[in-house]
């Protein structure tokens, strides 16, 4: 068996992808660097050598999730620079459930002094990007984010997305109110 050596950039990306999976399952507090290492197929000391700490690994994971959303929105805005265009693009992320769950874990972990500023910056960057791409007012962007958070939560609960559970009456009522069909 011939092994291919990964570049440092490829290894970093592999570890962040493994971290998305691990942190989606256990959140910041409930995930260890050993779990990330096992998913990536490397040693735990190697993860620490690359990132320095679990906190830095989580922050790299949050930055990746933020960049993924920004990338999706920028591409969508090139075709339709409206809140609807960005909303439709965001709903495509339901197929990347772990990514959305990691965002939720990041928002929940923002009370941690070592994470809070970076997580708030990620959220602020997304808010600013939406306004810049669409020309939306602060109030319009707030409503967009409120709907987006609902979509994120429903995706995390598997009410929306490719792996959605069977629809219950309350779900049908709520789903019927969502924008960006």
TrEMBL record:
<feature type="domain" description="HTH tetR-type">
    <location>
        <begin position="9"/>
        <end position="69"/>
    </location>
</feature>
<keyword id="KW-0238">DNA-binding</keyword>
<dbReference type="InterPro" id="IPR050109">
    <property type="entry name" value="HTH-type_TetR-like_transc_reg"/>
</dbReference>
<feature type="DNA-binding region" description="H-T-H motif">
    <location>
        <begin position="32"/>
        <end position="51"/>
    </location>
</feature>
<dbReference type="InterPro" id="IPR001647">
    <property type="entry name" value="HTH_TetR"/>
</dbReference>
<dbReference type="Pfam" id="PF00440">
    <property type="entry name" value="TetR_N"/>
</dbReference>
<dbReference type="InterPro" id="IPR009057">
    <property type="entry name" value="Homeodomain-like_sf"/>
</dbReference>
<protein>
    <submittedName>
        <fullName>TetR/AcrR family transcriptional regulator</fullName>
    </submittedName>
</protein>
């Amino acid at each position: 068996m011939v092994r291919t050596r990964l570049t440092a950039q490829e290894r970093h990306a592999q570890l962040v992808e493994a971290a998305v999976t691990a942190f989606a399952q256990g959140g910041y507090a409930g995930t260890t660097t050993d779990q990330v290492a096992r998913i990536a197929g490397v040693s735990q000391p190697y993860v620490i050598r690359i990132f320095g700490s679990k906190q830095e690994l989580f922050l790299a994971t949050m930055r990746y999730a933020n960049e993924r959303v920004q990338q999706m929105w920028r591409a969508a805005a090139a075709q339709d620079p409206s809140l609807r265009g960005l909303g439709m693009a965001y709903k495509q992320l339901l197929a990347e459930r772990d990514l959305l769950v990691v965002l939720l874990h990041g928002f929940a972990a923002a009370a941690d002094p070592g994470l809070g500023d970076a997580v708030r910056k990620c959220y602020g960057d997304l808010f600013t990007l939406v306004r810049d791409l669409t020309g939306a007012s602060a109030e319009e962007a707030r409503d967009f984010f409120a709907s987006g958070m609902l979509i994120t939560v429903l995706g995390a609960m598997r009410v929306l997305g490719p792996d959605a559970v069977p629809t219950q009456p309350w779900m049908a009522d709520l789903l019927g109110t969502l924008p960006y069909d």
